[in-house]
Write a structure and sequence with these properties.
8-stranded parallel β-barrel, 3-methyl-2-oxobutanoate hydroxymethyltransferase activity, alpha/beta, Pyrv_kinase-like_dom_sf, pantothenate biosynthesis, metal-binding, 296 residues
Length: 296
């Protein structure tokens, strides 16, 4: 996923409205109080419930989101353009992903932590994917990995699952392939919808425990959700998926500039932080900080 400065196609088109999945029972059980596991996400789909997912790249954000009840935390390769200052997700390395993953994993006690396999760490062969994923689990302490790509990567998913590594599939718009896709473009419109469904089915059949869809029409996402037993997660995929995910800096209003069509801001953290920094600077310049209360 990405939240780079967005070209026009990233937010084009009118929103497609579809009814969200209704719970099968008003008394459907919630997630457990302890560590959330993959089977709990499956139960959510089976029981018609939804769950929330946010990105996290450091201990404090991870701790806040964990305490707030976010069920899934994604250590996204979007750290490239949300933490490291790159224009895209492509430059981030596996070593950098491990560092961010370890910080997030150490700070959580409840959420399931998923880490992206970064560009260049899995495409060569299933063996490369297994080796990279083992490092994310052993050194990054995450519980699962997320991998971009369609049906062509089904054998890679099988190899990871055989190695005991849970895999979240990522289809639709895949930021690591932005150059091949022609930029930030909605995927799965019209006749291309069936390809998205076929990708999801192939990856779920290969053992992916969840399918994440980015920037696909709601109608296509609904077709995917109906075609696979495993939970689905959407980002710009309408309300019919089991879960929803956003980049936390977008959700909380920390990042400035143009936002994607699918982003809803729940706070204005950028303004709060800016006001605090200005107030601090004013006090320092005026000589009122540190005062008696802050001096030994």
């Amino acid at each position: 996923m990405t939240s780079a400065e967005l070209p026009a196609p990233y937010g084009e088109g009118a929103a497609t409205t579809t009814p969200a999945r209704e719970a099968t029972s008003p008394a459907a059980p919630a997630m457990p109080a302890g560590r959330i596991r993959i089977h709990h996400l499956q139960q959510a789909k089976d029981q018609g419930r939804h769950f929330a997912m946010l990105t996290a790249y450091d201990q404090y954000a991870a701790q806040v989101f964990d305490e707030a009840g976010i069920e899934v935390l994604l250590v996204g390769d979007s750290a490239a353009n949300n933490v490291l200052g790159h224009a895209t997700t492509l430059p981030i390395t596996l070593d950098e992903m491990i560092l961010f993953s370890r910080a997030v994993s150490r700070a959580t006690t409840r959420a399931i932590v998923v880490a992206d396999l970064p560009f260049g760490s899995y495409e060569v062969s299933p063996q490369q994917a297994v080796e990279s994923s083992v490092r994310l689990l052993k050194e990054g302490l995450v519980h699962a990995v997320k991998m971009e790509g369609g049906a062509d990567y089904a054998d890679t998913v099988r190899a990871l699952v055989r190695a005991g590594i849970p895999v979240m599939a990522h289809i639709g718009f895949t930021p690591q392939s932005e150059h091949a896709l022609g930029g930030y473009r909605v995927q799965g419109r019209g006749e291309a919808s069936q390809r998205i469904v076929d990708d999801a089915v192939a990856l779920a059949d290969a053992g992916a425990f969840c399918v994440l869809m980015e920037m696909v029409p709601a109608e296509t996402a609904n077709a995917v959700d109906a075609a696979v037993r495993v939970p689905t997660i959407g980002i710009g995929a309408g309300p019919g998926t089991t879960g929803q995910v956003l980049v936390w800096q977008d959700m909380a209003g920390l990042r400035g500039g143009r936002q994607a069509k699918f982003v809803k801001q729940y706070a204005d953290v950028r303004s709060v932080l800016s006001d605090a920094a200005r107030a601090y600077a004013d006090d320092v310049r005026a000589g009122t900080f540190p005062g008696p209360d802050h001096t030994f």
